[in-house]
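Is this the right way to post structure tokens for a design question? Let me know if I should format differently. Anyway, here goes:
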């Protein structure tokens, strides 16, 4: 892979290495934690059977059905053109798991985002369907909290994803390839494998840091649990890469510690408020380290300081290398975003930098993270300005194509989607490859910008996209 691109702090995403939380808890979490720090594993080092694991965790796993109602721009009494109905539905299926016995359930944001109706199927042999309310969503981490009205439900126990090691046994549970229309049902499918790697970045978001596993993860597994051998949930299954059209042992899960950090805010506020430092950073390469007179590469190199940001107000400059945040060492650029994002709005923190070979300490008062549109105006980043579609894209480079399984294809990769935009309400997701807008074939971000500018409000927009191995159309009226 080439050098990682500069990272924009205003969209700080991954939270696995947590600093002091803006919403620090003094009470016990509302979800269930392990009863002891080191429980006796349910299964031995080389398990003869995973049945005890399935028996413990499966009752808490649910199937999530999300319905999106798409409406054409044609009013009453006006016949739609080209046979397009005035209203039609898209239904998707995902997975989830029960956090509390009174019905709080954790799943992926992309499973329920923009849904008009969400239903949950609970139970193994005897099932019951519930209407669900979306209590909180966080598109930046792809985590959502939903709630059903029920009592005495079986619950999953949340473990510690930081303790996972490459080579540890894990199991994925969910509803792969399950249909919402009386089709095949593969609910409560359990697949096993190991942790293949940690800290994987897929280009889906600037701060993704996934657990990679060869336990089979397929469409419909999204939102289901990744479980360790103690029967504790250590991840949320979220992404698969399948260049051959089926599972090839490349599945990815969001570490559960990410969800733990934001669950209180999702429950109480419905969204996540993050603090903001306001810099773009990059890794320090060996050559850069030598040029700065460093013995070895470390820290986060400040590539740009955002105008009027806390960093600028504290005197941090481009070319500074951040090596410590509130006493926590910064080894590379990805260490910094989680610490800044949840350190606390209005909190003063100490940041140690290297400038001209000398260490300096800066006191920075963190502020609330600006909205995406405001941030785009302050940074002037090319290709990231707000547009009528509410979608930010980037060119499909060979590296990105290899990471996402889009080799040999053309189009633009979705970087971010405004959840309140026309496209955001139709389940367009970061990592999707947009190949066409209406009849316009896209080769790069410039083609995308021209096609979006040609769209007219009230008219139906048709996107042809690739999501992993699957191709699909999204159709919706453009609202401005």
């Amino acid at each position: 892979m080439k050098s990682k691109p500069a990272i924009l702090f205003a969209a700080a995403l991954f939270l696995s290495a947590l600093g002091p939380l803006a919403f620090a808890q003094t009470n016990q979490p509302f979800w269930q934690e392990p009863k002891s720090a080191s429980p006796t594993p349910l299964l031995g080092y080389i398990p003869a059977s995973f049945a005890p694991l399935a028996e413990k965790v499966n009752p808490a796993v649910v199937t999530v059905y999300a319905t999106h109602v798409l409406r054409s721009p044609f009013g009453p009494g006006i016949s739609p053109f080209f046979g397009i109905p005035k209203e039609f539905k898209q239904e998707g299926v995902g997975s989830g798991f029960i956090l509390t016995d009174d019905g709080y359930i954790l799943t992926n944001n992309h499973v329920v985002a923009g849904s008009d109706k969400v239903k949950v199927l609970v139970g193994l042999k005897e099932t019951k369907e519930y209407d669900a309310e979306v209590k909180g969503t966080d598109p930046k981490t792809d985590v959502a909290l939903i709630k059903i009205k029920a009592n005495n439900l079986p619950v999953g126990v949340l473990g510690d994803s930081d303790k996972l090691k490459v080579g540890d046994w894990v199991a994925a549970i969910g509803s792969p390839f399950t249909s919402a229309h009386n089709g095949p049902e593969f609910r409560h499918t359990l697949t096993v494998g190991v942790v293949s790697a940690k800290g994987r970045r897929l280009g889906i978001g600037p701060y993704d840091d996934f657990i990679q596993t060869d336990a089979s993860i397929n469409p419909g597994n999204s939102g289901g649990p990744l479980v360790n051998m103690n029967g504790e949930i250590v991840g949320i299954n979220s992404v698969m890469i399948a260049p051959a059209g089926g599972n090839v042992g490349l599945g990815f899960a969001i570490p559960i510690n990410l969800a733990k950090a934001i669950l209180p805010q999702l429950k109480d506020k419905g969204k996540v408020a993050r603090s903001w430092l306001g810099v773009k950073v990059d890794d320090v390469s060996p050559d850069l380290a030598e040029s700065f007179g460093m013995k070895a590469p470390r820290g986060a190199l400040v590539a740009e300081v955002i105008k009027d940001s806390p960093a600028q107000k504290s005197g941090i400059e481009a070319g500074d290398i951040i090596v410590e945040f509130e006493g926590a060492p910064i080894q590379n650029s990805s260490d910094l975003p989680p610490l800044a994002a949840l350190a606390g709005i209005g909190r003063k923190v100490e940041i140690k930098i290297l400038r001209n070979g000398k260490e300096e300490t800066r006191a920075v008062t963190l502020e609330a993270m600006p909205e995406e549109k405001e941030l785009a105006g302050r940074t002037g980043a090319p290709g990231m300005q707000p547009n009528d579609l509410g979608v930010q894209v980037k060119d499909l480079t060979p590296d990105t194509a290899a990471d996402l399984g889009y080799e040999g294809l053309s189009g633009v990769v979705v970087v971010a989607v405004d959840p309140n935009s026309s496209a955001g309400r139709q389940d367009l997701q970061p990592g999707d490859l947009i190949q066409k807008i209406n009849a316009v074939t896209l080769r790069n971000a410039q083609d995308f910008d021209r096609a979006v500018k040609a769209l007219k409000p009230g008219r139906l927009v048709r996107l042809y996209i690739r999501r992993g191995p699957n191709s699909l159309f999204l159709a919706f009226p453009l609202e401005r």
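Format looks fine. Someone answered above. Worth noting: Residues 23-272 form a domain with the Thrombin, subunit H fold (CATH 2.40.10.120). Confidence is low (pLDDT under 50) at residues 1-26, 74-82, 380-385.
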